[in-house]
Amino acid sequence: VTTASLRWGIAATGSIAAQFVDALRQTEGAELVAVCSRTPERAESFARTHGIARHHGSYEAMAADPEVDVVYVATPHSRHCEDAILYLEAGKHVLCEKPLATDQREAARMVATARAQDRFLMEAIWSRFLPAYRELGRLLAEGRIGEIRMVEADFGFAAPFDPHHRLFDPAQAGGATLDLGVYPVQLAHLVLGVPDEVRAVGHRGSTGVDEQMAAVLHHAGGAVSVLKAAVRTSMTCTARITGTNGTIELPAFMHCPGWLTVHDASGTERIETPIEGQGLRYQVPEVQQGIAEGRIESAAMSHADSCAIAGTMDAILEQIT
Amino acid sequence: VTTASLRWGIAATGSIAAQFVDALRQTEGAELVAVCSRTPERAESFARTHGIARHHGSYEAMAADPEVDVVYVATPHSRHCEDAILYLEAGKHVLCEKPLATDQREAARMVATARAQDRFLMEAIWSRFLPAYRELGRLLAEGRIGEIRMVEADFGFAAPFDPHHRLFDPAQAGGATLDLGVYPVQLAHLVLGVPDEVRAVGHRGSTGVDEQMAAVLHHAGGAVSVLKAAVRTSMTCTARITGTNGTIELPAFMHCPGWLTVHDASGTERIETPIEGQGLRYQVPEVQQGIAEGRIESAAMSHADSCAIAGTMDAILEQIT
């Protein structure tokens, strides 16, 4: 595999796939060469719309395409595990949409496959590569707000109820926690590490998916996280990190904020962290660099992190009856 | 007992007792006749400062004072149960500072005593009688924001650590949940009723009291509450009630807000709910009217409600290890 110009394929043709086309086109050294879909017509139409040279009428066909080095898996959550493993076993590297899997067991299988195949695998938590999250990392590293005592974050909106929509469909691993909760959960893990207690309540609607959830996490040293997500309840979609010396606020939307606000003894500072171009692009160099360096994972979004995040979401979902 | 002019005694001489003097002086039909303290000098000094005719050098002495009809118990939490029972058994009515007791068992004993003695007993959750909470009740009753799906509320600040201060002293029932958490907890009970699940995490500091806590509650129909309190972590001290058709926000401080904000399809409305005079006064007519009508409890702050709130706080504290 040459990584001077990495050749990308996109698995699936939904709206996030279309956004990722822009992300790749805005990234130096990324070449978009193929797209695939279960439905050949959709693959062809997507390829035509976006000017992609090759299209495949099945996921397997793209796995067999020797011109593809790395695949962006943008299928429904319920397919992430099998699709990622398909490409890893075909020798491709994989950037897989979040959540990496529907549970920790699947996540562990995916990671084991990446290891066995010596191929790069990363969960597409693009937030962590955005200017706001880079700045957040810098503020935390320098201890700007002291010892962190609490992380609060939520992501929720009142979607129109449609039992056939992915969000409400258990067969497609719908529900608030996996689709939206992953952002608050990953923030808690990023700032406070793996929790030693996860306690949650929530509500499953008529289709069986969790329509809202609220979780409290206990971390080493007594810090706590308070996380919420919903698909039928409007939330502020903000985050707040409180330390012994101050507070950092992430405005809506907390997964891609355009600025941070720091409150401490010296007052309030607003730090601009604008997203330039397609926000999904910021994670692409991380993937390309990892592959170029012969690594199988990103340090900023590691396999252990993805598995731990999946474990926290498992613990939340088990408690929502 | 004549209630044309109800004769009040105040048990304890702390800062809340001094505020309550003003509350009584601002209430028609309330006559402040006595104060007591374990320390005779303190009782005398408080009586002199506030122009109160009689002072007693023990709680028992005021219990024996035939001129006192109703006692405001403003002692540390750890004494509420025994002090309230002392006065109830002496035939006095009691308004007891929040939290009513240190646990549900004590609360139940106090209520049983009020029943046995046929005397009025109310927990001094003054919030519920303020203009903001009356307006909130009106908005909820008219269904302004639809079906309620979530109540979020917190109350916390970073107090200077002092192991001898009441807040940090387990012997005085210190800690975040009982002292501050009672306000978010009572709001959840007010809006969504008694929860059927209470899940919490938190941290006990070096003195053993809970320095911070975060709790999630599940209510009938799948609504949830997210409640937080802290004595060493700064919080927003706000509340937010989200329904299927909108949101009501209580600004800081959520236990005595000067206005409410309603967001719904028609836009944002700010409803002014100013507190006039000493905020503690709003609960006094509730006590006086209850006594005048020969009742033993308030409908707005009932015995069942106080016991249920104590039970929720028990459940929270049991989970903070």
Query: What fraction, in percent, of the residue positions of chain A are helical?
Result: 25-40%
- Strand order within the widest beta sheet of chain A: 8-9-10-7-11-12-13-14
Strand-pairing-aware structural class of chain A:
alpha/beta
The succession of helices and strands of chain A, N to C, reads EHEHEHEHEHEHEHEEEEEEEHH
Structure write-up:
Two copies of one chain form a homodimer. Chain A has 321 residues and is of the alpha/beta class. The first copy, chain A, has nine helices and 14 strands. Helix content of chain A is 33%, strand content 26%. In chain A, helix 4 runs parallel beside helix 5 (104-117), helix 5 runs antiparallel to helix 9 and helix 7 crosses helix 9. The longest helix of chain A has 17 residues, at 176-192. Chain A is globular. The termini of chain A are far apart. The interface between A and B is large, with 38 and 38 residues.
